[in-house]
Automatic annotation (TrEMBL):
Gene3D superfamilies tied to this protein: Nucleoside Triphosphate Pyrophosphohydrolase
Keywords: Hydrolase
Name this polypeptide is given: UDP-sugar hydrolase
Cofactor: Mg(2+)
PANTHER family (UniProt xref): 8-OXO-DGTP DIPHOSPHATASE-RELATED, GDP-MANNOSE MANNOSYL HYDROLASE
Nudix hydrolase domain residues: 15-148
GO MF: hydrolase activity
């Protein structure tokens, strides 16, 4: 968790906080999407995370993807901007957020994919018609938009 979030949590406790997240729809050469299984919720989501004060969307994306996957991404393209009621969630620890998500599509990357990290227990590529049943509820919309073949940028 970044310093901003920690500072705000000390001030407001578990009340709703607006956050900005950046995530990557990373496609391999077979057109499959990379998903990670979260340790805290045991569901599947995109690599990505929360923006820190002063960062750009792209800086957040590159930092979070590398931290979580060990991959260096290239030439991200805007896939969608997601907001609305689905962004309201409560984490298992009781913290509430309203999350705005900026999602990018990436088809070029390099590096050795790591399987486990502090937040994830595995990374797997999935085809559009064989996604896992347990998608992260806060991210299902953009993963399913990708599976349906929608072209960005999507604004919801």
């Amino acid at each position: 968790m970044n310093d901003y979030i920690q500072t705000m949590r000390r001030l407001i406790g578990q009340e709703r906080l607006i956050t900005v997240g950046c995530g990557a729809i990373i496609e391999d050469e077979l057109g499959r999407i990379l998903l990670q299984r979260r340790k805290d919720q045991n569901n599947w989501c995109l690599p990505g995370g929360l923006m820190e004060i002063g960062e750009t969307f792209i800086e957040t994306l590159f930092r979070e993807v590398e931290e979580e996957t060990n991959l260096i991404i290239e030439a991200p393209e805007l896939f969608g901007i997601y907001s609305g009621p689905s962004g309201c969630r409560e984490y298992p620890n009781g913290d509430k957020v309203f999350s705005v998500q900026i999602i990018f599509r990436v088809t070029s990357f390099h590096g050795e994919l790591k399987q486990e990290g502090p937040e994830s227990s595995e990374h797997t590529f999935f085809t559009r018609d064989n996604l896992p049943q347990t998608l992260n509820p806060g991210q299902a919309a953009f993963i399913l938009d990708w599976a349906e073949g929608l072209m960005g940028p999507i604004v919801k």
